Amino acid sequence: TGGTTPAPTGNRATLSPGLKQATPVVVDHATGSWIHGTDGKSYLDFTTGIGVTSTGHCHPRVVAAAQEQCGKIIHAQYTTVMHQPLLELTEKLGEVLPTGLDSIFYANSGSEAVEASIRLARMATGRPNIVVFQGGFHGRTVAAASLTTAGTRFSAGFSPLMSGVHMAPFPYAYRYGFDEDTAVEFALRELDYLFASRVAPNDTAAMLIEPVLGDGGYLPAPPAFLAGLRERADRHGIILIADEVQAGFGRTGKFWSHQHTVGLVPDIIITAKGLASGFPISAIAAPTELMAKAWPGSQGGTYGGNAVAAAAGVATLAVIHEENLVENARVRGEQMLAGLRKIAAKFPQIGDVRGLGLMAGIEFIDPTATSSSPVADAASAAKVQQACIGEGLLTLTCGPLGNVIRLIPALVVTEDEMTTGLARFDAALSSVLG
Ligand code: PMP
Which PROSITE patterns does the record match to this protein (predicted)? Predict the structure, then answer.
């Protein structure tokens, strides 16, 4: 359906079938918002490697920083010898982290950083339980998968999972058929009910939340909900962890997505993805006295805080500041949502359009269903996602039911590129659902 044929170089057939491929595209090279395939076609990339290439593909500043660092030292191993890029990154990250979260630990991937945050919360509180929110995606390692409720495909078949994980509802107003206030009230009431019925608050180490659900459906958490979590965390001595792996680093039009809730400061922030424009590096940040509960030697890792990745991270932060990319994410995000809402009005199969900054979710439903809450239509989402490829636009689906298309453009996306992306999305919708 995509109409593209990857060039028959190398051997794709022996890659694990456990990898579910979203597109047949094989990249030759990429720049900014564009991927150029070995098929000779150019694709507008609204996937950014799942929200990673924040400064666009191969930003010259990031490329130069990485190349220069490669000539100095590639792998320094930060518990053996410290290196300059990591010290510099730590200083620069400190400038964008909320006041008080001044201690940083580095790893390689989002999953590892999620695990580090859970280890820290348990070590600091001596409590076993973690509360997660339905639809959250926190990674694929066994512990991170145990915390993930964005789809059973992420955890089915390899139980037993890590124990002590309990799920509370996420205020998914559209699915419940509620207005936002009712959804928040419902979700907080259910959280309190969980605390009363199954998970004693003083047995609870942490609440772990994505301020904008990512793989679970691209849903911003209403500020009143996050404020309610903060209040309960304070009341019960529970550590509030914000998983900013996908929504952080400028993507939502604020540097951190939890900052849409005025005055909210989590106890631990987890970041990865956009941090180094594509180089693998992740981090958790926490107050020094909290991080000090991780005794020397309890944290580490061979590759964590890699020198080339750290140099790319320093360059990424410089580009975000100098090119005003957080503001660009806000403005282009407004353009994207407004454009999508206009398009959605033409297609009854689109039940909901939502998002924050450059994270937009388009939820497909069966418009003929008569039930009180929406009936998911994953087939339409899949067909539209495939038709987009034929139009020269790369997108991804998400949500436990697979009926949401997510758009994740680079923070450098221009007004023209956004207009082009929206027109291509509209054309794909018309070709499949028109
Ligand atoms: N948390 C969130 C919010 C994520 O979106 C992801 C990745 N999609 C992860 C954690 C896991 O990150 P990684 O794939 O780098 O392990």
Answer: AA_TRANSFER_CLASS_3
